[in-house]
């Protein structure tokens, strides 16, 4: 196989992230295990909203596949706890919503 290792939307196989952009695999999403990415591609976002997670209050936007509009996860816009600031601008993609490509 050639090319970079990718993650794609589980519904339509649109490429949404590069394996090399994973920051952490130690996250929990609404539907189980999730990955924190520094970047994502071919996504759209919903409106900002404040949500309380296990690590505190965050302003987030839901992240959708730009082709089929499947909800894939969310993006951290603001972390109110200074210890969580590293998440700002990063994207959570739920493992159950993405599939591996070029592995």
From TrEMBL:
Swiss-Prot/TrEMBL keywords = Metal-binding, Zinc
Q: GO molecular function, one example?
A: metal ion binding
Q: Which PROSITE patterns match?
A: YIPPEE
Residue span(s) of domain Yippee: 5-102
Q: Per UniProt, what is one Pfam family of this protein?
A: Yippee-Mis18
Classification via InterPro entries: Yippee, Yippee/Mis18/Cereblon, Yippee_fam
Q: Which residues cross the membrane?
A: none
> Which family, according to UniProt?
Belongs to the yippee family.
Question: What's the protein here called?
Answer: Protein yippee-like
Q: Which organism is it from?
A: Helianthus annuus (Common sunflower)
């Amino acid at each position: 196989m050639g090319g970079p290792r990718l993650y794609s939307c589980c519904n339509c196989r649109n490429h949404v992230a590069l394996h090399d952009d994973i920051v952490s695999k130690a996250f929990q999403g609404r539907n189980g295990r999730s990955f924190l990415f520094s970047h994502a591609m071919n996504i759209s976002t919903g409106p900002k909203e404040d949500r309380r997670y296990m690590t505190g209050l965050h302003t987030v936007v839901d992240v959708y596949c730009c082709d089929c509009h499947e909800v894939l996860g969310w993006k951290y816009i603001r972390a109110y706890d200074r210890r969580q600031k590293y998440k700002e601008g990063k994207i959570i993609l739920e493992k159950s919503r993405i599939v591996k490509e070029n592995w």
